Amino acid sequence: MKLFRKMLAWEWYTDVNTKVLFIHCLLKANWKDTKWRGIAIQRGQFVTSLETLSKETGLTVRQLRTAFLHLEATGEVTSKRHAKFRIVTVNSYDAYQSSDKQNVTKSPIKRQGSDKQATTDIRTYKNNKEHKEEKEGAPPDYNPWDIEDTPEELEAWLNS
User: Fold this and answer.
1) 131 lies in a domain?
2) pLDDT tens digits along 111-142
3) ∠91-93-97 over CA atoms, to 5°?
4) Can you give the residue range of the structural domain that contains 61?
5) Whole-angstrom Cα distance, residue 97 to residue 145?
6) Considering the domain boundaries, does residue 126 fall inside one?
7) From residue 69, how far is each of 93, 100, 128 by CA, in Å?
8) pTM of the complete model
9) CATH for 95
10) C-alpha to C-alpha distances, 142 to 50, 103, 150, nearest whole angstrom
């Protein structure tokens, strides 16, 4: 998921509850189309309830209702309410989550923290190099993010 710096200028950025709910919606939204209890759930949507969101975000149901009003009024999300659940749609989901597999599979650049001393000792370098050569494992072109699980496998994993 991408989170852009321009979000700092977003009109709801200073409203903590609305910001928390929106970021939570971005994180919860399905990254591919699926089905749930016979209902088609599209990319950028997820099924939830106010009670579930309350547990996940730490916001009260009243705070969530107000935050949903803000997000729906400005078009960030829409939600379709049902008797026991709601389907939330993040309207700009594709802007935050690229459908281009190349962007999804890129590894983040690992940088040393500024409070750590740089590794300049040649012995440390040699030890790390020898350790990497001895290491057995997945082939170099293996990428765990390329694996696409079926909705049933994901559901089983979530319930385990």
Assistant:
1) no
2) 555 555 555 555 555 566 555 555 555 455 54
3) 175
4) 5-99+150-159
5) 14
6) no
7) 18, 32, 54
8) 0.59
9) 1.10.10.10
10) 40, 16, 20
